[in-house]
Design brief:
- The protein contains nine helices and nine strands.
- The protein has two domains: 1-50, no CATH class; 66-294, Rossmann fold (3-Layer(aba) Sandwich), CATH 3.40.50.1820.
- It has helices at residues 17-50, 52-63, 116-121, 135-144, 160-177, 191-203, 218-226, 250-256, 283-294; strands spanning 72-74, 109-113, 126-127, 131-132, 148-150, 184-189, 209-213, 232-240, 260-269.
- By secondary structure, it is α/β, with parallel strands linked by helices.
- Mean pLDDT is 80; it is low at 1-33, 42-50 and 64-86.
- The strands form two sheets. The chain has a seven-stranded parallel sheet, sandwiched between helices. It has a two-stranded antiparallel ribbon with strand order 3-4.
Length: 300
Amino acid sequence: MRPIRFMLLTFTPVQSNITRIIHSVKKQAMSTNQMLGNFLILFLFTSFLAGCNSALIETKIATVQFKPPTALILPTSTFIPLVTPLRPSSTPDLSDYAFPDTIDTAKPYMFYLHGKIIEDQGIPAISSDYGEYEYGAILEILRELGFAVISEQRLKNTDSMEFAKRVSEQVKTLLDAGVPAKNITVVGASKGAGIAIFISDFLENRDINYVILAICNPEIVEEFRQNDVSLYGNVLSIYDSSDKLAGTCQELFSFSENKGLSRHDEIILNVGNGHGLLYKPLDDWIIPTVQWARSAEPGK
């Protein structure tokens, strides 16, 4: 922001009444200009602060070099478990994130599949352990970072495979319209990540990007293996080291190799909030997710 400079007016002492009146009027005008200038500074400063949040994350994304080796453990922020639920935020307008009527083939598209607690409780959904699932805030920050975000609130006890087929058809619609596969990313959290895995298996496309958050454990991986469900495309797994429900996806990666799996990686975070990692738009998972989605884009 450029500094605002004020012009200082210098007056020569005069004796005539007319001149004294003019002098008085100029002083009043200068005082008014100063007040307007101060108001302008306050307005610009407030506007600057309003844009800081997404700009700060965008700067972090641009400067962090994302080349994580498998099973990388990243130092992260301190997490304080919640004892009582926080006051819920406003309900997001999900019509803003519906599948678009008009497809812009130049845009990067991101599907976000929420966790099961949204199915169980609706919006707002609040866990006694992790607080509110900030569904709206997650969608908003992903959109502010340049993606055409598509997300739908699932009904209670939604069948994962049926919903995966629904989203797969939407992805095919984008592909048929001319959107490059590398510009499509599917992000799933917990049950949403399981749905993302089914989508990957249904589409069998080696260029689509996937980020699966906190889904794998031995029982779930074995179920995928028994049903011959494999990963295709570019897949990033993220989970927190303290998560008692989810862990590494390495066995699923191994099972999927030599089929349709292209790039794959895994990040283990040390946020300390376990499965609650999914509940908020933390930089710890937002930044690598966006970088993974952008890594196939031209010039990224």
